[in-house]
Amino acid sequence: MSKKQKKQKVKYIDDGRTIADMSGVRGSAFSSFFKNKKVRSGSSFGDKWNTYWNAVKMMFVPMLVVVGAIVVMYMIMWLVLFLSY
Fold first, then answer.
1. Reduced to 3 DSSP states, what percent helix, strand and coil does the chain have, rounded to the nearest 5?
2. Rg of the Cα trace of the chain?
3. pLDDT of 75 over the 80 cut
4. N or C, which terminus of the chain has less Cβ within 10 Å?
5. Which residue from 12, 24, 84, 80 is spatially nearest to 54, judged by alpha carbons?
6. What is the overall mean pLDDT for the chain?
7. How far is 72 from 15, CA to CA, in rounded Å?
8. Which has more confidence, 79 or 6?
9. Residue among 55, 13, 15 nearest 39 (CA)
10. Which among 38, 43, 37 is positioned nearest to 21, based on CA atoms?
């Protein structure tokens, strides 16, 4: 008979950051994800402002693509309904 191996317990380490901590957002999401560097948790207004604008810059192009797709779908539907009337 073979012995069952004991399951290893998972250890969770609390580093003091909150779940919504976005202080590591710098430029592209993939470039900052793979860098192994210490990021200090900034709590000053300037750090929060820079984090906010970095996040907005990352979302700007995808937002334009979605808004453009919605406009194109609206124009196609308007054209189909206009021609069928």
1. 55, 0, 45
2. 24
3. yes
4. N
5. 24
6. 80
7. 46
8. 79
9. 15
10. 43
pLDDT above 80 (res 67) = yes
Tokens of 9: 């317990």
Write down how long the chain is: 85
- Residue 28 DSSP SS3: coil
Cα 62 to Cα 64: distance, rounded to the nearest angstrom: 5
Q: Which of 72, 31, 76, 34 is nearest to 84 (CA)?
A: 76
Q: How many CB atoms lie within 10 A of CB 24?
A: 15
In this structure, are residues 23 and 47 in contact, taking their beta carbons and an 8 Å threshold?
A: yes
Other CB atoms within 10 A of residue 58 CB: 15
